[in-house]
Amino acid sequence: MSIDTARLAEWMDEQGLPGKGEPIEARFLSGGTQNEIYRIGRGEHVCAIRIPPPEAPTERDAGILREWRIIEALEGTDVPHTAAVAACTDASVLGRTFYLMGFVDGWSPMDHRGVWPEPFDSDHTLRAGLGYQLAEGIALLSRVDWQAKGLHDLGRPDGYHERQVARWLSFYDRIDGARTLDGMDVATEWLRTHRPLDYIPGLMHGDYQFANVMFQHGGPARLAALVDWEMGTVGDPKLDLGWMLQGWPEDTSDPAVANKGYANMQYMPSREQILAHYAEVSGRQIDDIDYYLILAKWKLAIVLERGFQRAKGDVKLESFGPVVVDTMRSAAELAESTKYAR
To answer: Which of 62, 72, 6, 14 is nearest to 34 (CA)?
Structure first.
């Protein structure tokens, strides 16, 4: 879609936003079928707009407001985030609900695809900092007082873990053509009969990985912002940790890990080092991490299976096929080998 910059400028003036009377320059940054992001320049002022394209499902408008509530709630916290500028639900402005957020002058690992920008490509000690910063982002997020921020109705924290198996099995059952996955019965039964050592509800990202953060330019590694809050909710923040670590290499010194996935994981901190840093910053215990790893692997395999079955020639989605099988098998193997017994 294209942005009606004249109408947007009129609305921004009505909101009393900076740059009144100045023309707007909109430049597409990223996006797809769910949301699009544009850089909005107006005189000396720069921000970004996040808006669903015209063909996106109508529920994305509610999703946009959900994201807005989260970034607005992060104001005043120590969680790296984009600034909340303004939100609009009036479809007469741009045709869809949208919000304006602060423009982040940083870089995304998705823009580099396996090769870190300098100095992180050549200085391996600095590269390790990227992993620690990634963990620190969700550790800080887990400490946000979501009730004080008015997010009591963002999710359903009560009974969170009791709902997981039934919810995602129902999701799996609705996948047209879903395969019978090796190990799924083992992992499912394990999850039915185990729970974490404790459960402290908190704000969670829902899809936490290198793809959904931005870093400041130059070293040392510093998070600039957690981004893409489509799956944000109030639930168990340690599932973000499990999601982040579910594919973390066992041996980050192994050269073979450099070419797996979109991020070069060689010379990253070990899983144990990441866990220790998360525990220190968040104040949460991590002795039950195997529960979260099994849940994350099991859930990820189910989510990716839907993508694979909808591929229809899409090379990226077709590549999910073997990943689904390996991830579900990994969940079952950990369920069978873990000493975690609660």
So the answer is: 62
Average pLDDT over residues 176-188: 97
What order of strands is seen across the sheet that includes strand 84-88? 24-31, 36-42, 45-51, 98-102, 84-88
d(CA 282, CA 289): 14
Asked whether the CA dihedral 231, 236, 241, 242 is positive or negative, the reply is negative
Percent of the chain beyond pLDDT 90? Answer: 88
Q: What is the pLDDT of residue 310?
A: 94
**Up-side HSE of residue 138: CA atoms within 13 Å toward CB?**
34
Distance separating alpha carbons of residues 260 and 142, to the nearest angstrom: 29
| 171 close to 257: Cβ distance less than 8 angstroms | no
Span 87-107, average pLDDT: 96
